[in-house]
């Protein structure tokens, strides 16, 4: 029997052309749901001339790709640049727009909220943001199930942007905030088991592990070496792809590099991405000459080529929650060296497809990279195991699991309503 297609309202704090792992994942999720025939109403941040010009000019897949679906509709809510990161948006106050009125017109079967913490201002500890739980007022009034999908380690972000002293001062109230935030939603899904455990200890309510965060394993593939951005450069290449921000710990790569270069003189570090620390990173990299390349943003086949070209993918960030770029590297057949962080032990099997290093320990990190580069047999073995180790997180497999959950929720609600003799049409 064919299941009835769902009407899904999906709120997101990040979407194209705002470039993050979240915005890429949200787009993939929307496209997959549309391809299955579900009706999707996407409520996403609006781009305006208040942002740097390069943000709007990005050749990033987004609305144009899915406009042709007859089961798709969208609304762009008004935004302004984040205080700490001018290339990313924050919603304007709820006085400027009403999510409740939007949902009244669409009448969804359920509501998905991705990166709700940013929209509420938790990234900046209530200094910014929309200021209230998204979609909750409508959900409570109508009995519509509402789900929060966690992407970001909010607590780690607060620590990075406000510092240890402030963090230690507010630490006692963080469980109160997490509990209050999570109680707004019927379900809080985490794509990382480690992240789930961490937030359950912080009093997160109605929390559950659902592996909804996949990647396109057909798109990210070792054969993309044909798009090698530096075909005539045979140096061993270590690659980082991500936003150039404090919480990504990119600065630490420049502490790690000379330790690696002392053992592997011709090693080449390539940093792909952009962000508020661009200028600082470029200035520090100058003293290493051609040993470090700050590439800037990369898109399309060029980016696919970088993932397949690299000898090792490196990630020093301690704030990752099932990091997308880690998985993209592994799917491309590239071994991974990452620090121990929420979810990395779910991605890296030490000695099998990469290594885990101690957080904020450049010496340990460098030794892990050197161990791979100095041992061709070990590198070849890790390369062979990298892609198979991540195939269970192919996008379609992950989305199928999420879709099954959505059907269970809607069907469970309908049974309750039938029992009460009040099924909503």
In short:
The protein has 425 residues and is of the alpha/beta class. Helix content is 40%, strand content 16%.
Description:
With 425 residues, this protein is an alpha/beta fold. The chain contains 17 helices and 15 strands. α14 (344-347) links the parallel β14 and β15. α1 (21-35) crosses α17 and α10 (250-261) crosses α15. The longest helix is centred in the last third of the chain and has 26 residues, at 395-420.
Q: Percent of residues in helical segments?
A: 40-55%
Structural class: alpha/beta
Q: Indicate the proportion of strand residues.
A: 15-25%
What is the end-to-end distance? Answer: 21 Å
Largest sheet: 7 strands, parallel
Strand arrangement within the widest β-sheet reads: 3-2-1-6-7-8-9
Q: Could you give the count of β-strands?
A: 15
Uncertain residue segments: none
Rg, alpha carbons: 22 Å
Inertia-based shape: globular
Count of helical regions: 17
Mean pLDDT: 91
């Amino acid at each position: 029997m064919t299941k009835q297609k769902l009407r899904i309202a999906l709120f997101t704090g990040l979407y194209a052309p705002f470039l993050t792992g979240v915005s890429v994942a949200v787009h993939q999720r929307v496209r997959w749901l549309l391809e299955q025939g579900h009706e999707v109403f996407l409520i996403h941040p609006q781009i305006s001339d208040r942002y740097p010009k390069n943000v709007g000019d990005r050749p990033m897949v987004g609305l144009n790709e899915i406009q042709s679906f007859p089961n798709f509709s969208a609304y762009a809510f008004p935004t302004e640049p984040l205080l700490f990161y001018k290339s990313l948006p924050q919603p304007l106050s709820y006085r400027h727009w009403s999510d409740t009125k939007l949902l009244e017109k669409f009448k969804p079967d359920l509501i998905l909220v991705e990166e709700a913490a940013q929209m509420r201002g938790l990234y900046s500890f209530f200094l910014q943001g929309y200021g209230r739980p998204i979609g909750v007022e409508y959900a409570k009034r109508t009995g519509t199930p509402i789900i929060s999908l966690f992407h970001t380690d909010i607590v780690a972000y607060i620590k990075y942007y406000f510092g240890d002293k402030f963090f230690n001062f507010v630490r006692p109230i963080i469980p109160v905030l997490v509990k209050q935030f999570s109680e707004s939603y019927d379900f809080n899904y985490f794509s990382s088991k480690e992240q789930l455990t961490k937030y359950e200890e912080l009093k997160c309510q109605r929390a559950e592990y659902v592996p909804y965060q996949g990647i396109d394993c057909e798109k990210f593939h070792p054969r993309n070496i044909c798009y090698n951005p530096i075909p005539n450069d045979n140096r061993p290449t270590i690659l980082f792809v991500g936003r150039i921000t404090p919480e990504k710990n990119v600065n630490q790569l420049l502490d790690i590099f000379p330790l690696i270069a002392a053992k592997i003189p011709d090693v080449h570090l390539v940093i792909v991405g952009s962000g508020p620390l661009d200028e600082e990173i470029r200035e520090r990299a100058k003293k290493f000459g051609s040993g470090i390349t700050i590439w800037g943003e990369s898109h399309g086949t060029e980016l696919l080529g970088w993932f397949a070209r690299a000898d090792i993918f490196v990630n020093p960030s301690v704030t990752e929650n099932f990091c997308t770029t880690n998985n993209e590297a592994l799917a491309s057949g590239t071994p991974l060296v990452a620090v121990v962080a929420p979810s990395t032990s779910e991605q890296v099997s030490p000695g099998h497809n990469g290594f885990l290093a101690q957080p904020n320990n450049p010496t340990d990190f460098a030794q892990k990279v050197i161990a791979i580069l100095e041992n061709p047999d070990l590198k070849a073995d890790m390369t062979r195991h990298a892609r198979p180790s991540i195939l269970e997180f192919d996008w379609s497999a992950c989305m199928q699991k999420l879709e099954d959950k959505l059907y269970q929720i809607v069907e469970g609600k309908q049974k309750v309503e039938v029992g009460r003799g009040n099924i909503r049409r």
